[in-house]
Amino acid sequence: xxxxxxxxxxxxxxxxxxxxxxxxxxxxxxxxxxxxxxxxxxxxxxxxxxxxxxxxxxxxxxxxxxxxxxxxxxxxxxxxxxxxxxxxxxxxxxxxxxxxxxxxxxxxxxxxxxxxxxxxxxxxxxxxxxxxxxxxxxxxxxxxxxxxxxxxxxxxxxxxxxxxxxxxxxxxxxxxxxxxxxxxxxxxxxxxxxxxxxxxxxxxxxxxxxxxxxxxxxxxxxxxxxxxxxxxxxxxxxxxxxxxxxxxxxxxxxxxxxxxxxxx
Length: 264
Hints:
Layout: H1 5-23, E1 27-31, H2 36-46, E2 51-56, H3 63-79, E3 83-87, H4 91-100, H5 107-133, E4 135-137, H6 143-149, H7 170-180, H8 184-188, H9 202-206, H10 210-221, H11 231-246, H12 248-251
Helix pairs in contact: 1-7, 2-7, 10-11
């Protein structure tokens, strides 16, 4: 458990304010999904009193996700004068892209590729408005997603300028949300990446809860012996290691082929 959500919130808010001032930019642009991470991040940005542009970017979105995003933006704007918003429906962009792609029999990979394409359309949209206004694209990834299981889209929601909550576990983000009084529907909602045309949750995709994955991440960090694990812990530990291994390409710098000097 986090000792002081209040102090952590104040620390992040100060860090954000200092960063935007040192960078010489005008504020923040954030994609609002209706989930806990974007709600907390946008609220912390709003508390800096710098300009904050919240963008809702639905693509065939599940109705519950869309309504939570809209309600959060409404709540945010009612509490902070420095917050503005845009709704950018990307349905037609996504449909046009799908029509241009050739047919394939690899339906499983196609579904995953299209899900990641949604995230990349959103990233491109955020950078458009960032460039237009001189804002920083603000990431909403947390520690276990970004550095544990790599549960994000490379050059999608992983394509950002700053990551204010990336040193917080998911459970700690929920603690911050409670402290900030984020609307209850978001605090109670099951986490989801919102990249599919259904209500599948992060747990459905990952095979374990965030609490379990955080336990596994800590077990690796502190060198806990698997000999003492319960049967469920063994399963979770294997799930964590598989995700962590498979997604190293997201977490490490892009490999560069170094040319021997004698060749140059």
